[in-house]
Design brief:
DNA polymerase, domain 1; 167 residues; Ubiquitin-like (UB roll); five-stranded mixed beta sheet
C-alpha cells in the first residue's frame, strides 16, 4: 500500500519506527509541520489523517498506510485555505511557529462541529445542537498551544470561518 500525502502516494518508510512527523519533515521535506515538544503536548505537529487531527510526533508513519494525510501544505495547495486567510486577517499568529498545527486542528474541529460532535463544554447534547462559542473553540483547541499569546486572534479567525461556512 501507500500513504497518500497531500494527494500524492508515498511508500511507507522501511523503518516501522519512523514517526509521521519525521517522514514528513526529514524524508519528504514538508517542513510546514513543526517539531514542538515531540511528546504530544503542544500540537505544533498536528496534521490530518482522513480528515481527523492527529499529533504526527506520536503517530507512526506506518499507521497512515492506506490513508490520506493532509499537511498545512496540502490545505493551501490551491491558494490560501479560508482558515489561513482568516488567521492573517485576525492576527491569529505572531511568530507563526504553531500556526500550521493550529490551522490543521481548526480544520478538523470545524468538521467535528458540523458533524454534531459534542465536547466537554457543549451545553446541549441533542443531535446537531452544538453551538459554536468562544468557550467551545477554546476547549476544542486546548491541545494546541501558542506561546506568543495569539489565542484571541486564533479564536476570532476560527469563528469568522465558521460564520462564513454557516451562511
Amino acid at each position: 500500500m501507500a500513504i497518500n500525502i497531500n494527494g500524492a502516494d508515498v511508500e511507507p518508510p522501511q523503518d516501522a519506527r519512523t514517526s509521521l512527523l519525521d517522514l514528513l519533515r526529514e524524508q519528504l521535506h514538508l517542513t510546514g509541520t513543526k517539531v514542538g515538544c515531540n511528546q504530544g503536548a503542544c500540537g505544533a505537529c498536528t496534521v490530518l489523517i482522513d480528515g481527523q487531527r492527529v499529533l504526527s510526533c506520536l503517530t507512526l508513519a506506518v499507521q497512515a498506510d492506506g490513508r490520506a494525510v493532509t499537511t498545512i501544505e496540502g490545505l493551501g495547495a490551491d491558494g490560501l485555505h479560508p482558515l489561513q486567510q482568516a488567521f492573517l486577517e485576525h492576527d491569529g499568529l505572531q511568530c507563526g511557529y504553531c500556526t500550521p498545527g493550529q490551522i490543521c486542528a481548526a480544520t478538523a474541529m470545524l468538521a467535528e462541529i458540523e458533524a454534531g460532535m459534542p465536547s466537554y463544554v457543549t451545553r446541549d447534547l441533542a443531535p446537531g445542537a452544538v453551538a459554536l462559542s468562544r468557550d467551545e473553540v477554546r476547549e476544542r483547541m486546548s491541545g494546541n498551544l501558542c506561546r506568543c499569546g495569539a489565542h484571541n486572534g486564533i479564536i476570532d479567525a476560527i469563528l469568522s470561518v465558521a460564520a462564513e461556512q454557516a451562511a
